[in-house]
Amino acid sequence: MFRPLELFVGLRYTHSKRRTHFISFISMTSMLGIALGVTALITVLSVMNGFEKELRDRILGMAAHATVTTYSGKLADWQSLSQTLQEQPRIVAMAPYVRGESMLSHGKRVSGALIRGIAPELEGGVSDVVTHISGGEIAQLREGDYNIILGSELAIALGVGVGDSVTVVAPQITIGPTGILPRLRRFTVVGLFEVGMYEFDRGVALVHIRDAARLFRLDDAVTGLRLKLDDIFAAPQFARNLSMELLGDYRVEDWSHQHANFFRAVKTEKRVMFIILTLIVAVAAFNIVSTLIMVVTDKRADIAILRTLGASPGSIMTIFIIQGVVIGVLGTALGVAGGLGLALNVENIVPAIEQLFNVEFLAADVYYISEVPSELHWDDVWLMASVSLGLSLLATLYPAWRAARTQPAEALRYE
To answer: Does residue 382 share a domain with residue 401?
Structure first.
């Protein structure tokens, strides 16, 4: 039965006497090691969560939460389908689109690009690209004007700006009197967009949906419908449910499926980083083993006296478990406090360090994300604290077991 005696003696042993300063020093280093490890875990994972959120937001600035297409790539009855989808409570906005691969040329410069035909009046509901356009506006994409808005990197590659013309070459061909000719059309650049993802800024161009349909010979059909949901994290389950509800040659994809490799890589990186930083906590936690072994050796006479006074092996074991757990709890508490302080203020701390040492960690002219973001997840904090406490408890078991096996007569023989 657990008694206050074990708690009193265990806490008493955590205090240093003059002849046990070295043991207390090792205890302090173990505690600080655990605190630093937990602080590093919370801070690093929060920063990785921040980068993941930043990249996800930038991807969703161009990609929809979910899309409905057909396996043939041609959706003819999109008006009736959109009316059917309006009954879905999670859908807050939808817009048709046309998608096709093409070649863009200007002078001697040629670049491949993805042409996306959009409905300007509806596009703002499903993406944020309308807020990232410079030199023009989305309303300038009017049917029949054959205007185009290019990604900023794509415009640099072609050497064009607002007001210039580019030739769009579609993969379809036209058979005429002179033979087989590629389908091409001249478009006028009316704006540039920059969403902060090289994949989109370098390889996407926006045109009016009807101009794109004529270019790719879709007549009144579109490629599919883009959907925006009330919760982006509900998209995978929503896509699965909708694919089972829709009858016919429909294909439903969500944003996590469309960028599965990217987000899988981010999760793998977070998992590996968690394991690596947990090893730091493990090293510090298992310093508790050496601390308690030294305490057990130093307190052999005290243990023997307690045994002769009636203390059971279980009581002796509990005393040293308490001592090790106190080190683990204090170290974990300090680490959680330090980690929360850094994770919640890293966006202010990093600029201060840059200004103090006159350095720039993420140059704006090199990286799309020039600030260090942070997003604290409380489930990560609880997991790290639990792992730290678990390792600390595990580290106490062997020294406590050694203390419980101390024989009073053997320990007091030379006292």
So the answer is: yes
